[in-house]
Amino acid sequence: MSPQQPPVNPWYKEVWVWFILGILGLSVVLGTSMLVIATKNPPGLLSDNYYDVGKGINTSLEREELAERLKLKAAFTLDNERGTVSLQLDGYSNPPQLVLNLISPTQPERDRRVILQPQGDGSYAGNLLDAVEGRRFVELIGQEGGKDWRLFEEKQLASGQRFQLGE
For residue 24, what is the DSSP state? Predict the structure, then answer.
C-alpha cells in the first residue's frame, strides 16, 4: 500500500503567493503615487538655462565690486509692529531710492521687496507689507553714476534688531 499524500491546494489558495503579490502590488501603487506627486509639484529652485544664470552671477559680482569701490555700508532695522524699515547708508553714494530685497532661501512666496525713500536726515525708510523674521538673504540695491551697486549678505532677521551690511 502506498502512503497517502496530503491534498495539494491550488496556487490561489496559498498564503505566501498572495503575500508576495501584495508586496508587488503595493510597490506599483506607491511608485505611481510618487510619480504623480513629482509631476504635479516640480522643484522651483532649479534653473533650465545655466548660461543666463552664469551671466547673472557675473552681473552680481560687478555690482558688488562697485559697492566696494564706493565703500558702502548700511545699517538697517526692521520694525514688524509698525511695518517699517529704516536704513542708514554710509559711503560715496546718495541714490534717490534704494531697493531692499529680503529673500527666503527655500520659499519664494516669502520673499519681500521694500522700496526705501530718502528721509530728511540722510536716512532711508520704507514700509513692510507683513512681518519678516528668520533666515533671509538680504540684498540692498542702489544706483550711482547710472550703474547699479549691491550689498548682499545672509542674516537671521528679528524685529527691532539693527543689522549691518557691507562689513
Answer: H
